[in-house]
Amino acid sequence: MDSGGSEAKGFLPGLTWRSLLAMVLAGLIFLPASAYLWLAVGAGASTAATYVTVILFSALARIYGTRLSRQELFIIYSIVGGIGGAMPIFYWQVFRSYFVNNPLSLEFKVGGVPVRDLVPTWMAPPPSSPAHALRTMFHPDWLPAVAVAVVFSGLSLLAEVALGMLVSYLYIEVEPLPFPFAQIDATMINTLDEREHEPLLYFFTSLIGGAVYGSLVFLLPLVLGPAAAVIPYPWMDFTPYTQFFLPGAALGIATDPTSFLYGMILPPSVTFSIMLGSLATWVLGNTLTLTVFKDFSPEWVREYTQGMSIFLIYQRANLRLWLSTFMGVSFGLAIFILIVTRRRIIESFKALSRIKQAGSELGYPPATILLALFFAATTLSVILYYTLVPGIPLWLPPLLSIGLSLVVALVGARVYGELGLTFSPDFVYNMWKAVVYYSPYQGYAGWIFTPVIAGFSTPWYVNATKAAYLTRTRPIDYYKAVMTAFVITTVLGLVFMDFFWRMAPIPSFVYPYVMGLWPFYAISDCLFATRQIIIRADQILLGIGIAVAAGFGGFALAKMGIPVNPIALVGGVYALPPYTIMVFLMSLLSKYVIARAIGKEKWNRIRAVTIAGFLAGVGIIVAAGVAITLLSKAAWIWPW
């Protein structure tokens, strides 16, 4: 298998009528299931949609005497998961309906005005609108909110696509990064395409193992209820046992294989560094701030109580303890990466002119057009933002929309390409809130709504482009498919969110996950708008110092031969220990147990296909569980 880069020649088209049909069917079949799951359990059907659709369409093609090309398989594999696991953008419009009708929004006031009265009509109709009682998105009062959501989502997509192509060229052609997930993705596609005996044997063997494991973790709770769970999801929570000697520590073992199996691809030095950063934050830091350094965050000390689960500890500590520090760590990590890679980044940008020469095969527009598209999308969003959110400081939207987008894209794609770690959306939103906090802005919309800040999706776009290289698919076909998928998810997402809202109130017992989550969101929004959540400049500076010091300290240790990865060490502070512990254990299992048992060369050859097969088995079981759940609930929700 080719490693990508300039050697990957002979690209072929992958966006055909057959791959387009698979995308549409995934939207019709999996998007409603995903919309329901986001409301009921807090997760989409991405894994299920991906593997089920790829395997199903591959089998159907053989039944009809033809076969999908490797490039068509790639487009289906890389796009269908995004469609089938998407959270419809109108999810947040329904949340705003809940928010403006919640008595909490009357209790919090800004300048003597209840927060509810500060919610503009382009975010939600006023509480007096009949649209709320009718529970439908198809009402004239929703038109401004729907239009704003679609316009800003479209501008965000254009900025993301432009950055995706630019950064893909930098980190695949100019400075090739490994992108461990791309190896798994490409192996899955190539195995189904080539159908060689040995890879297929390992693929289907691990698929059976994944199906068995998926049944224990996902199927039984989905079909029989949470009480039937054999293996708890998403983790085994150890806090009931550790709270007596490590209060506040978020200790456990993750059980969702999609969150830790990639550790088998990474070396133990990287996964140990990730785990070290995670334990230093969520175990040592949480505990010491409750026992020794109580003045660091008195709010955290007041709110922590024995018996809190990992989920509650994460919520409260993230908001009360680590919010300011993590903002600083994020800035510090970006500063560290930009410093140590400055020469390569400068050389990479100088090499962007080569996109024009490579354009005939990659299909990319010239770099000047891509940059113009990015600046046009972000600038237009800033202009619209000034119109929608009066009172916001003029310097704030362009600084974060343009400047932060470039930093997040460059740094995020590098971290993902080397380690498989990503920044969560909260990372950027908290950056925005920190700047708003230190501005004179008074209101509600400016805290919750941002101009286009791109870079979230860049790591996944670059990873998929790497897989496109490995499967000889024209990269531009992937980006065309991404834009097509946006149209599908936007149109169908509106229909299905409206359907589920009409079916039962949101939140309600029919959608249990948001019953617990949306009140937390509502309170958080009110606390930010009324500045009752304190963002401390000294802790931001502390976070910057910690990140830069840890980065260069890890860099020095690595130079001395001590196996510490500085980026992984700093990046690990965002990840919860249940995940990082399992990622580390998987890397040890891969290198020191499996590789020695069956031979290093053979394990390296079949490792990716084994992981892909296991995840495919889990995906198939999740799809079956969702289908059974939806069928079982289809009748009793109604009163007759």
Search tags:
mainly alpha; 640 residues; two-stranded antiparallel sheet; 27 helices; single chain; 2% strand; disordered N terminus
Could you describe the 3D structure shown?
With 640 residues, the protein is an all-alpha fold. It has one domain (5-631). 69% of the residues lie in helices and 2% in strands. It has 27 helices and four strands. The chain has helices at 17-40, 46-63, 70-84, 91-100, 104-107, 130-134, 143-174, 180-194, 197-224, 239-242, 268-291, 298-303, 310-321, 323-340, 342-350, 354-362, 367-388, 396-419, 425-437, 445-448, 458-470, 475-503, 512-529, 537-559, 566-571, 577-598, 600-633, and strands at 109-110, 113-114, 235-237, 252-254. The chain has a two-stranded antiparallel ribbon with strand order 1-2. It has a two-stranded antiparallel ribbon with strand order 3-4. Helix 2 (46-63) packs antiparallel against helix 3 (70-84). The termini are far apart.
User: What's the number of helices?
Assistant: 27
Number of strands: 4
What is Rg? 24 Å
Average predicted confidence as pLDDT: 83
C-alpha termini separation: 58 Å
Q: In total, how many domains does the architecture comprise?
A: 1
